[in-house]
Write a structure and sequence with these properties.
two-stranded antiparallel sheet; Fumarase C, Chain B, domain 1; 54% helix; 2 domains; Fumarase C, Chain A, domain 2; 474 residues; 4 strands; 20 helices
């Protein structure tokens, strides 16, 4: 299977999932290749005009932008690999993110706005059929994304004779932000599905009154995301036990649908941002095709390489994960307190049983909170190197939401085991739609009948929860 790209409309979140997460290849439609060839020819006519100024083509790069180049110097500059920005080192991005970056890179090419040759576009698409060069997720403090893109694409200049602007078209723009927003959205959706099941299992373990999840509340609360959370919890709790508490549950149980609704809103924002970003033209400089008013076309230098939407969207996912870690912590503490849960606490919180999972919950909660700090625009290179005075923060934001999500998986694993133990000691089944989850929890962490070390079981369960989110994604 492969994804065929004909126009920017083909750069969707679904296409990203198929290519980045599921390993499909990419093909470029003949019509798109013809469009790129036409655009390239028009661009070459434009730069042949005397007196034309095109950044990085008729001029130097960065602090040398004021230097005018001769035609010979243009070709020499074009064919010089851009190894300079490939200086970041540290932890590598997951392969799935690198694949997503390569896919998103093609968005600038597909309708001719990068003015690259069809041959280069096909070489970039072909990169998805092989192992990609590593990209560091650390040390990314440059303006734009050239420090992240250079390791992926700079080496193409060694095996392909680049023409004017093509080297710049490889390492400029914001495909990394597009890929990271899309990656966070896909992971966030899968993680939220899992977490809602764990919270529903906790509701059943606590015997929380079901009116807090009644469908009638949707019309009263007047919010589509809260309505969706209510519907999801209601479906998961179908067939729940009839014996419930005679009075209202603690706050953390009653506000659950509203907090889950906010998580759904953060996810919807990330999905929207990813959809806009994947199909956006962000090249700098960007080529606009000839029209009746501009027979030679136009080239604009812009700030398209700075995606201002992606980091706030990823921050939203991280914040939602931290909030859900708190709710999970509160559910755990209430289940473990027999005075509140009305469960036999000597079987729940005794030494070596499951009581210490409450301590673990606090650790994950605080780690998630630290990760979920607001990502601000960072200064670049000590206040400015040449024209670069503001850095791109998306690497920081992506890493933070990834860490907050990992903490939420750990917090959910703790709550799932405590809920499983509560159902075990009271000899109650899970609602039908939660049976598979409960079976999975007990397969990795069986109910406690006598004290044992829980860490190995919890590690296996957390790894299983991670597979719910990432599956076999590279």
């Amino acid at each position: 299977m492969s994804v065929t790209l004909a126009t920017r409309r083909d750069f969707t979140l679904d296409a990203f999932r198929r290519v980045a997460w599921e390993g499909e290849g990419v093909g470029i439609a003949p019509a798109a290749l013809a469009r790129m060839e036409t655009s390239r020819q028009a661009f070459e006519r434009l730069i042949a005009e005397p007196g034309i100024t095109v950044y990085g083509v008729t001029s130097g790069f960065g602090q040398f932008a004021s230097k005018r180049l001769t035609p010979e110097e243009r070709l020499e500059q074009a064919r010089r690999p851009h190894y300079g920005p490939a200086a970041a080192f540290g932890r590598d991005l997951p392969e799935r993110v690198a694949r997503g970056i390569v896919l998103a890179r093609l968005a600038n090419f597909i309708e001719g706005h990068a003015a690259v040759t069809p041959a280069l576009a096909e070489i970039v698409a072909g990169m998805l059929g092989a192992k990609l060069p590593p990209v560091s997720m650390d040390g990314q403090g440059g303006a734009g994304e050239i420090v992240g893109l250079a390791p992926l694409f700079a080496g193409l200049g060694e095996r392909f004779e680049l023409k004017e602007k093509e080297g710049l078209a490889l390492i400029n723009g914001s495909p990394i932000a597009s890929a990271m927003a899309a990656d966070g959205a896909i992971a966030g959706a899968r993680r939220l599905r899992l977490v809602e099941q764990v919270f529903a299992l906790s509701v059943e373990a606590f015997k929380a009154p079901l009116e807090a999840y009644a469908p009638e509340l949707a019309a009263l609360w007047n919010d589509p995301y809260e309505a969706a959370a209510l519907a999801s919890l209601g479906a998961l709790l179908e067939g729940a036990g009839r014996e419930r508490r005679a009075y209202q549950a603690p706050v953390s149980y009653r506000i659950l649908p509203r907090v889950l609704g906010q998580a759904r809103r953060a996810l919807a924002t990330a999905e929207e941002v990813a959809g806009h970003s994947l199909a956006a033209i962000t090249d700098n400089p960007v080529f606009l095709a000839p029209d009746s008013d501009h027979p030679l076309g136009r080239v604009y230098s812009t700030g398209g390489y700075h995606n201002a939407m992606a980091s706030p969207a990823l921050d939203g996912l991280a914040g939602a994960a931290a909030d859900l870690c708190l709710i999970a912590d509160r559910h755990t503490s209430k289940l473990l307190d027999g005075r509140v849960s009305l469960l036999p606490d000597q079987l729940m919180a005794g030494e070596g049983i499951v009581g210490c999972l409450g301590f673990v919950q606090v650790g994950y909660l605080e780690q998630a909170r630290r990760a979920a700090q607001r990502t601000f625009l960072p200064g670049s290179e000590g206040g400015g190197f040449g024209a670069n005075d503001v850095a791109e923060p998306v690497f920081i934001a992506w890493a933070a939401q990834e860490e907050a999500g990992r903490c939420l998986e750990g917090a959910a694993a703790c709550l799932a085991v405590v809920a499983s133990q509560a159902l075990y000691v009271t000899e109650r089944p899970a609602p039908p739609r939660l049976k598979d989850l409960l079976d999975e929890v007990r397969r990795h962490c069986p109910p406690m009948v006598e004290p044992r070390m829980l860490a190995p079981d919890m590690g296996r369960l957390a790894a299983a929860f991670r597979r719910h989110v990432y599956g076999d994604a590279p």
